[in-house]
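Continuing the batch. This is chain 6 of the set; chains 1 through 5 are on the previous pages. Same settings as before, nothing changed between runs. Recording input and output for traceability.
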Amino acid sequence: MFPFSLFAQFRGMIRFAILLVCIFFSLQAFSQSAKEKKYRFSGYVKYLQTTNFSEGLDNIITDNLIHHRLNFRYAPVEPLTFAVEIRDRIYFGELVKLTNIFGDFGELIDNNDIYDMSVVLVDKKAFVWHVMLDRAFVRYSKNKWEATLGRQRINWGVTLAWNPNDIFNAYSLYDFDYEERLGSDAARIIFYPNSSSSIEITSKIATEKNEVVSAALYKFNKAKFDFQAFSGVAHKDVVAGGGWAGNIKNAGFKGEFSYFHPYRHFTDSTGVFTGVLSVDYSFKNSLYLNSSFLYVSNGSNDANFFLSVFNISAKTLSPYKYNFFVQALYPITPFLNAGLSTLYSPGSHALFINPVLTYNIKEDWDIDLVGQLFFSNVNDEYKDQAELLYFRLRWSY
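Output for chain 6:
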């Protein structure tokens, strides 16, 4: 068992060490020449402004986020790779101030896994500065074996909108600004019998039995389709599932499903089934369409829309039983791309509309305009629940 109590006692020292690691790797990365192959360095800086029109034009709420990410890879010898990725965010504005009236904005965004590898440098009423080690792992890869230990992204999902197979770190469809997604503090071993199959055993580090997520995954190719099947334990449930990805003529056809059943009182309890079917197609004029259907067996026809925004897991991808998603993407010019996504759940007629415009100013510079509109039936009244407009400027390096 890991010495978690000892870890907690030295949390302050560890947070300080995080900053030292940030500074050290930054200096190391900048000091390397472009020809140095042992180091890889990349990242981006984003400015995101959020404008909330939910209360009408007489009560507009704005918020600001400066997001800086540093990604490092260090390969001292061929089988070993060390990775550190730092997420540095500064929030300021009215939303921070309003959130702090009812709670603590700094704690709200501090979404660590088991280990607390973050620090809130500044926590004021309208200004929060948060630094976090988003990835920190060592990987051994040689011949047919790969082993990874530390905070890492474990992506078992197959489809675009929802991922019932993503039992380690599921993500919210609405969080478009976090492309890397959450990571897990875990140990992972993968064996590749051949070029078209793999066997993976992964387990999250846990301090309590209810936090355990551990499973084995098998991937293989058959009839030009990629298949996968897994089973294990996820929190309070035993879980099993699978997925596939391939093409029917020129259309992509994907799907995945998972079944969760409490391991306590196994015989006198009911399980939860989540499943997704997805079809996508690219036309000759570069128009791309994707449609998905999500079924959640214990979902409701009359739920709270915003339950699907927070507390996401592979078991709780949506509070609704039936969910439909359609997305269209089209490059208007080589520099301007447009997209429109819609999500609909019958019953309360919950509707999410998500228009997107992306413009490439020049190499490594992009501007995004993103809208998020939420509508649903609440207390027998159908109305808009939120109207959000985002402006994002991004520089990648």
